[in-house]
C-alpha cells in the first residue's frame, strides 16, 4: 500500500547493533546525512486520511516528483506518516521546511503543489486552513490552534516519522531509552523512575503503572508482558493512531517494561479491525529485530525480548484484561471469575503485566528524561498528558493530547473550536460506554480533566473517548445508544450484567417511544446500581454509568419524556413535532425547498406552515433554517 | 496453616487462609443461597446470587462468596439489606426467564420478590453454566456456552447433534431448573436441550433379552484420561439384569445340578 520513500542519501549499512553505544553512533550517522533545508512533503496516511484518498496523493507525488516533469535541484522526500489527528480536514499535506499546512488535498492538487509551492515557494490559497468563524487563513501547521494548544508528548513523533521506516524513528530518538535502561539502570531503578513519574494506566482504570510493575517483578517464574491494543470504545482511536504512527515507541516501552519486570516474552493483542496497525507493527517488529533492537541479545547486552502480535476477533469484552488473556490463550474471551490479579496469575497462569498502548508509549520519555520531568505536566494525582479522541458536535474532530487537569471547556472551545451551527453546548460524554455525561456548561460550569475529578462527576477517564453534545442531543437516546452497545458486547455470563442490561434497554426503549411509565426512572436507577455492584468484571460494574449519570444530571429530560410525552431535544420521533414560528419566519422558502416530502407550504415572504400529517421529522427544515424559526414542540 | 480471624455476621470465627467465604459460611451454619455452585466443580461465579459484602480494608465491597478466597482478617456480612436487595433483583430477573422452577420459586418467596416487575422472557434456561461445566469435566466438548451478550445460550457445536456425547446424563442431573431432559427411545439415548435433540448416543441391545440398555461409550477418550492401568472392560453385550441372572444360573448349575434340584432354562451366554 505505502512504501517508504528512500531519502536522497541512502542510510548507512548496518547489520546489528552490537552494543548500546552503536545505536547512538548510528543515529549520529543518520543525522549527518540529513539536510535540514531539504524539502520534505509530509502526507498523513492515518486510517482517516487513507479513507479520504491520501494513498493516491502519495502515489501522485511520487509520479510527479520522480517523473520527467521535475526540474528542481534536490528531489523532495515524500514521507507518508501516521495520523496527525486533525482527521476532519484530511488528507493533510505539510511542506517542510516552510511548515506549510494544506488541508483536504486531492490528487488533482498535487501538480499545483509541486509547481507552485515546492518549485516557486508560492502558497495555494484554497488549500489553506481557515478556522471556523474566521476569515484569516493560518498558513503554518504549528500556528493552528488545534495543534498549538496541545501538549504532544506521546504523539510527538506522529506526523513526523515514517512509521514504515525504522531509521526515521531512530533519528527521532527511538530505542535510546531502552539503551539507557539496559546499560545504566537496574530493573529496580527503571521501576522507581516509572513510579516516580506517577504515570497511571491509560486504559481507563488509572492503576499506578509503577506499582503494577513492582508487584509483577516480585513474582516468581516466567513472566509475560502484554499490550492491550483492543481498543473498542465507539469513536475512540488513540491506540490505533499510536500503533500506526509511531509503533516503535510502544515496542520500546514494552521492552523496557520486560527488562524491569524480568520477562522476555511479549504479546500484543490488537483488534482485527485495525489491519493497518497490524501491518505497520509487523514490519516495525521485523525491522527492529533485524537491527538487534528487539529479539535475542538486544544490543549485545544479553537481554532477550520477543514480541508476538495476536489479533482479536471483534469482541469489545476482550479489552477487559482477564478476557483478553483468555482470548490470547485461545479460549473464549470471557472475563475470569477469580479474585486474583493478573500480575500474580494471568496469561497461562503466569505473572503477567498488562498495560495499554498509550501507557507503554509514555515509558521511553520517562526513562530518558526522568519521572520528575513527566510529573511536571498534569496535576498532583493525575500526572502527565492524555490523548483524547475528540468527536461529536465540535468543529475540530480528531486526536488531541493535553496535560491532565486541563479545563474541559478549553478542550471543547480552545482546541475543538466550539460547537458548530450556532448550537449551545449541552454536555460532554467521556469514557466511552462505561463513562458518563458531564453537563457543562450549564449544570457544572467546568471541570478539570483528571481521574479523580471525572469520577466525582459520575464519569470516568476511560481510554479517552470524548463526545461533545449540543442542545439537539437527547440524553435518553444517548444512554439508550450505549446500553444497546453493551447489550451486544457484554459477554453474557453473569446475571446482573446480562439481565440488567436487557431490562435497562427495555425501559429506555419504551421511554424513547413515548410509552414511559411513572416509576421507570426509579427502576432504571435501581437496576443500574445493582448492575454496577453485583457484576463480575469491569465492563459489568460500569455498564450502568451512562444511564446513572444521565439520570443524575438530566432527570428533567426523563420526566419530560415520561410525564409530558415530549422530547425537548427533538430526537425521539414519537415525542415531538416541528412548527414554524410566525414571529421570526421571513418566508425565505429554504425549508420548503429542502423538505423531501413536500410537507411545507407557504408563499415567498410569508410565514410557512408544516403539514403535520406529511412530516417525517427528518430535521432538514430545522437544520437549515437560518433564523431558527423551526421550533421543536 | 495460617489462621484468619473473621467476623462473620457479627460473630468471631476462624478461617483457614485461602478458604472461600461460602465454605466458611457452611462450616458455621450460615446459609448463603447459590444457583451455579456445585461441590464437584470449580466456582464460576456466574449467577452472582451468593454475593456478600466483605470489609478487608476501609470500605465494604461486594464479592461472590463461592470464589472469594479469604487471605487476611476481614469482616463478612452475608445478609445486609444491600445484599438482600441485590439477590431479590437477581431472582426477579431469573424468574422472568424461568418462572416454573421450584428452586427459584422457593427463593422468590424467601426474598419477597415482586414477580410482576419484569415481563416474561420466554426462555427456560437461567444460564448458570452448570451443565456446560459438568460436561467439560466429563467429555470436555459436548455442551458449551455459545453466543455473546443477550444471545448467550447453552448449545452444542454448530447447533448440531453432538457426536462427542457419551450419554452420561451429568448435565440433566446438575441443571438447577431441570430444563435438560434425557430419554431412551428406539435404541438411542437422547439429550434434549431447549426442546431440541442435542445429542444421540446409540444404546446396545442385550444379546440375551433383547432390551436396550446403557449407552455405547466411545472408550478412546476415557482411556486417554485413565491411562493404561485403568482400562475398563470392553463393551458388554448383555444388559446388567441378564448378566446377573446368567451368573446365578451358571453358579447354580455348577453347585446344585448334582443334587437334581436345578433345571436349566437354556440360557447359555454368560455376561
Describe the structure in brief:
By secondary structure, chain A is an alpha/beta fold.
The N- to C-terminal Cα distance of chain A equals: 52 Å
% residues in beta strands of chain B: 15-25%
Give the overall pLDDT of chain A as a whole number.
91
Which range best describes the helical content of chain B: under 10%, 10-25%, 25-40%, 40-55%, 55-70% or over 70%?
A: 25-40%
Distance from N terminus to C terminus of chain B (CA atoms, Å) equals: 52 Å
Instruction: Extract low-pLDDT stretches of chain B.
Output: 267-271
Q: Name the shape of chain B in a single word.
A: extended
| Sheet with the most strands, sense and barrel status of chain B | 5 strands, mixed
Looking at the structure, what is the overall shape of chain A? Answer: globular
Based on the structure, what is the oligomeric state of the protein chains? heterodimer
State Rg of chain A. 27 Å
Determine Rg of chain B (CA atoms, Å): 25 Å
Count of discrete alpha- or pi-helical segments spanning 4 or more residues of chain A: 24
- Helix share, percent of chain A: 25-40%
How are the strands ordered across the major sheet of chain B?
2-1-5-3-4
Amino acid at each position: 500500500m505505502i512504501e517508504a520513500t528512500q531519502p536522497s542519501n541512502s542510510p548507512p549499512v548496518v547489520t546489528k547493533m552490537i552494543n548500546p553505544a552503536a545505536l547512538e553512533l548510528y543515529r549520529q550517522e543518520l543525522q549527518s546525512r540529513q539536510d535540514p533545508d531539504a524539502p520534505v512533503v509530509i502526507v498523513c496516511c492515518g486510517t482517516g486520511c487513507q479513507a479520504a484518498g491520501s494513498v493516491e496523493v502519495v502515489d501522485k507525488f511520487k509520479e510527479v516528483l520522480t517523473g520527467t516533469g521535475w526540474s528542481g535541484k534536490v528531489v523532495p522526500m515524500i514521507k507518508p506518516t501516521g495520523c496527525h489527528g486533525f482527521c476532519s480536514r484530511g488528507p493533510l499535506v505539510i511542506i517542510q521546511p516552510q511548515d506549510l499546512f494544506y488541508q483536504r488535498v486531492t490528487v488533482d492538487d498535487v501538480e499545483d503543489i509541486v509547481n507552485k509551492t515546492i518549485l516557486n515557494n508560492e502558497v495555494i490559497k484554497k488549500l489553506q486552513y481557515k478556522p471556523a468563524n474566521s476569515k484569516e487563513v493560518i498558513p503554518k501547521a504549528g500556528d493552528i490552534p488545534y495543534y498549538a494548544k496541545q501538549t504532544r508528548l506521546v504523539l510527538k513523533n506522529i506526523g513526523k516519522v515514517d512509521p514504515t521506516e525504522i531509521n526515521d524513528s531512530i533519528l527521532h530518538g527511538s530505542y535510546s531509552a531502552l539503551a539507557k535502561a539496559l546499560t545504566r539502570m537496574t530493573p529496580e531503578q527503571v521501576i522507581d523512575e516509572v513510579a516516580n513519574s506517577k504515570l497511571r494506566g491509560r486504559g481507563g482504570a488509572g492503576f499506578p503503572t509503577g506499582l503494577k510493575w513492582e508487584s509483577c517483578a516480585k513474582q516468581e517464574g516466567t513472566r509475560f508482558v502484554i499490550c492491550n491494543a483492543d481498543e473498542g470504545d465507539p469513536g475512540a482511536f488513540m491506540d490505533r493512531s499510536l500503533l500506526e504512527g509511531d509503533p516503535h515507541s510502544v515496542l520500546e516501552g514494552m521492552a523496557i517494561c520486560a527488562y524491569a519486570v524480568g520477562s522476555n516474552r511479549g504479546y500484543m493483542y490488537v483488534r482485527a479491525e485495525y489491519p493497518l496497525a497490524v501491518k505497520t507493527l509487523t514490519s516495525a517488529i521485523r525491522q527492529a529485530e533485524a537491527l538487534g533492537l528487539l529479539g535475542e541479545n538486544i544490543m549485545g547486552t544479553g537481554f532477550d525480548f520477543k514480541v508476538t502480535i495476536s489479533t482479536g476477533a471483534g469482541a469489545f469484552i476482550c479489552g477487559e484484561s482477564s478476557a483478553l488473556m483468555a482470548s490470547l490463550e485461545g479460549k473464549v474471551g470471557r472475563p475470569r471469575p477469580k479474585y486474583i490479579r493478573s500480575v500474580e496469575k494471568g496469561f497461562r497462569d503466569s505473572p503477567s503485566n498488562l498495560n495499554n498502548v498509550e501507557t507503554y508509549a509514555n515509558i521511553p520519555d520517562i526513562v530518558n528524561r526522568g519521572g520528575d520531568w513527566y510529573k511536571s505536566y498534569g496535576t498532583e494525582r493525575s500526572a502527565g498528558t492524555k490523548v483524547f479522541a475528540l468527536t461529536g458536535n465540535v468543529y475540530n474532530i480528531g486526536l488531541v493530547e493535553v496535560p491532565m487537569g486541563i479545563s474541559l471547556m478549553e478542550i471543547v472551545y480552545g482546541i475543538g473550536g466550539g460547537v458548530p451551527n450556532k448550537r449551545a453546548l449541552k454536555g460532554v460524554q467521556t469514557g466511552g460506554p462505561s463513562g458518563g455525561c458531564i453537563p457543562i456548561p450549564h449544570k457544572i460550569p467546568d471541570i478539570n480533566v483528571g481521574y479523580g475529578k471525572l469520577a466525582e462527576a459520575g464519569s470516568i477517564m476511560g481510554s479517552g473517548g470524548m463526545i461533545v453534545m449540543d442542545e439537539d442531543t437527547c440524553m435518553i437516546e444517548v444512554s439508550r445508544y450505549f446500553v444497546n452497545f453493551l447489550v451486544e458486547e457484554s459477554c453474557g455470563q453473569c446475571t446482573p450484567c446480562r439481565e440488567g442490561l436487557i431490562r435497562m434497554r427495555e425501559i429506555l426503549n419504551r421511554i424513547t417511544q413515548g410509552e414511559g411509565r411513572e416509576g421507570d426512572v426509579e427502576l432504571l436507577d435501581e437496576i443500574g446500581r445493582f448492575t454496577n455492584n453485583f457484576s463480575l468484571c469491569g465492563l459489568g460494574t460500569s455498564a450502568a454509568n451512562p444511564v446513572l449519570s444521565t439520570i443524575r444530571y438530566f432527570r428533567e429530560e426523563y420526566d419530560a419524556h415520561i410525564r409530558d410525552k415530549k422530547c425537548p431535544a427533538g430526537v425521539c420521533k414519537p415525542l415531538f413535532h416541528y412548527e414554524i414560528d410566525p414571529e421570526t419566519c421571513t418566508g425565505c422558502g429554504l425549508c420548503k425547498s429542502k423538505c423531501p416530502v413536500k410537507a411545507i407550504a407557504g408563499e415567498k415572504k410569508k410565514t410557512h406552515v408544516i403539514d403535520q400529517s406529511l412530516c417525517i421529522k427528518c430535521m432538514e427544515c430545522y437544520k437549515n433554517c437560518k433564523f431558527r424559526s423551526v421550533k421543536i414542540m | 496453616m495460617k489462621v484468619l480471624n473473621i467476623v462473620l455476621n457479627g460473630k468471631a470465627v476462624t478461617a483457614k487462609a485461602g478458604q472461600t467465604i461460602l465454605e466458611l459460611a457452611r462450616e458455621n451454619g450460615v446459609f448463603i443461597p447459590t444457583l451455579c455452585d456445585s461441590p464437584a466443580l470449580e466456582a464460576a461465579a456466574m449467577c452472582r446470587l451468593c454475593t456478600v459484602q466483605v470489609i478487608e480494608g476501609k470500605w465494604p465491597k461486594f464479592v461472590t462468596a463461592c470464589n472469594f478466597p479469604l487471605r487476611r482478617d476481614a469482616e463478612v456480612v452475608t445478609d445486609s439489606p444491600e445484599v438482600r436487595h441485590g439477590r431479590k433483583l437477581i431472582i426477579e430477573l431469573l424468574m422472568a426467564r424461568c418462572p416454573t422452577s421450584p428452586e427459584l420459586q422457593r427463593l422468590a418467596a424467601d426474598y419477597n420478590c415482586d414477580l410482576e416487575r419484569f415481563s416474561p422472557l420466554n426462555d427456560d434456561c437461567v444460564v448458570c453454566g452448570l451443565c456446560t461445566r459438568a460436561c467439560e469435566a466429563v467429555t470436555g466438548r459436548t455442551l458449551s456456552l455459545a453466543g455473546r451478550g443477550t444471545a448467550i445460550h447453552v448449545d452444542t457445536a454448530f447447533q448440531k447433534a453432538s457426536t462427542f456425547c457419551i450419554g452420561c446424563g451429568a448435565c440433566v442431573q446438575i441443571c438447577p431448573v431441570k430444563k435438560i431432559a434425557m430419554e431412551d427411545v428406539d435404541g438411542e439415548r437422547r439429550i434434549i436441550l431447549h426442546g431440541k435433540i442435542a445429542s444421540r448416543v446409540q444404546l446396545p441391545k442385550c444379546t440375551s433379552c433383547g432390551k436396550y440398555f446403557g449407552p455405547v461409550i466411545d472408550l478412546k477418550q476415557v482411556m486417554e484420561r485413565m491411562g493404561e492401568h485403568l482400562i475398563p472392560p470392553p463393551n458388554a453385550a448383555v444388559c446388567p439384569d441378564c448378566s446377573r441372572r446368567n451368573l446365578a444360573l451358571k453358579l447354580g448349575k455348577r453347585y446344585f445340578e448334582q443334587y437334581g434340584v436345578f433345571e436349566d432354562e437354556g440360557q447359555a451366554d454368560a455376561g
